[in-house]
Specification:
This protein is α+β, with helices and mostly antiparallel strands. The protein has a 6-stranded mixed barrel. It has a 4-stranded antiparallel sheet with strand order 19-18-25-26, covered by helices on one side. The chain is globular and about 70 Å long. The protein starts with a helix and ends with a strand.
Length: about 500
Amino acid sequence: MSSPRFLSLLSVITVSVFLNAYSRSLPAPHETTVLNVASSLQQTQHILSIDPTRSSLLTTTRPEFEPKSIPLFLNSSSPLTLQLHSRDTLLPSHHKDYKSLVLSRLDRDSSRVAGITAKLRFSVEGIDRSDLKPVYNDEKLTSPVVSGASQGSGEYFSRIGVGTPAKEMYMVLDTGSDVNWLQCKPCSDCYEQSDPVFDPDESSTYKPLTCAAPQCASLEVSACRSNKCLYQVSYGDGSFTVGEYATDTVTFGNSGKVNDVALGCGHDNEGLFTGAAGLLGLGGGALSMTNQINATSFSYCLVDRDSGNSSSLDFNSVQIGDGDATAPLLKNSKIDTFYYVGLSGFSVGGEKVSIPSSVFEVDAKGAGGVILDCGTAVSRLQKEAYDSLRDAFVKLAKDFKNATSSISLFDTCYDFSSMSSVKVPAVAFDFTGGKSIDLPAKNYLIPIDDAGTFCFAFAPTSSELSIIGNVQQQGTRVTYDLENNLIGMSANKC
């Protein structure tokens, strides 16, 4: 006969075994983060109501700088800083509602992505640059149709000074372009911009480049007339600029100025630059601003495009911190413009998504890989990677109310109209080297209207190239350490 003590011990063991077995049968809770639905929807109204003519954006900056107070830098040893603004804060909105604004953004986005992939294809396939020439006659410069040789027009801008005395103007910031340029008088065709068009005759430091200048030889598309170098740049959205290639002094707010920066003086310009005077090229090519000022690093924080806030673009002053997520900054021997990053995959809900590493690698021909781009909005992934990421997210978001998207780019949308906030599966970028960064929920679930429809903000591409766009970068300080070939990402350091 069993003793009471033995029976008691047996009962404890039986219950313990049962509980352990039961706990193993329960699914482990996945990692979540909170999406502030109410705040996102409030911003959809706010961005449409911004009036730049009454904001500090246009009223606090001076039409000219004070030359005496600005140091001259001849190398990259000193920091330079610019304010950084989103495109939609420059001119009053003409959109009837937020959905119209989203469609406009995505239209430009699709064109830009097509332009980036075409530019890479030209480099990989070795298209002869001599086939791409500006066309001109005695009256004016005109632009030929250049199929595919384009990068896009960008979504963020900074205010810089050009010439002596410096004339301030808004310039599109673009990590996917190398050539700096601005609209110039006399205009044969200029689009509307918020500042007066630059007049090279009023700058004592403006110097046209000759056809023999090394900067002229570095242009992808150039020509010569009266021993003056002519340039042309075309973009994926149909925008283009054609004009004279020259050098002048560029002033970075009150932080400093640099002489003899090569830039295009565009006399024939058309496109969707929304009030900006031109473009500041931050790519990796020889003619980019970063290379011309011998920058060892640059850093930016892209604020939420719907917020109306501003941040900064910094050269040589922001260091990668110990707690930052880091990734290798990679090179593509076929093209030096784009910044390739070592991405190994994604995690959803705290679990790594199964994606072959080869999906994110540059192959021997120079195709494939992953680039960081501030001008692309929605990140594009090879279809295999996108399908795996989306399916992993959908599996953990099965309790959400599905919504039908009227935008073909998005295939996964939810109706959050009855919620002020919601816990959603966490999404993270995993980089080669072992580091990762968790994305804020608003960086991958974005409103496409003001009624509460939110979509998963990644998209598939048939191209071999993947792009990390600005929606996923918003609110994150991104530092390009050009000396050590590292990318650093730090959340909430804007």
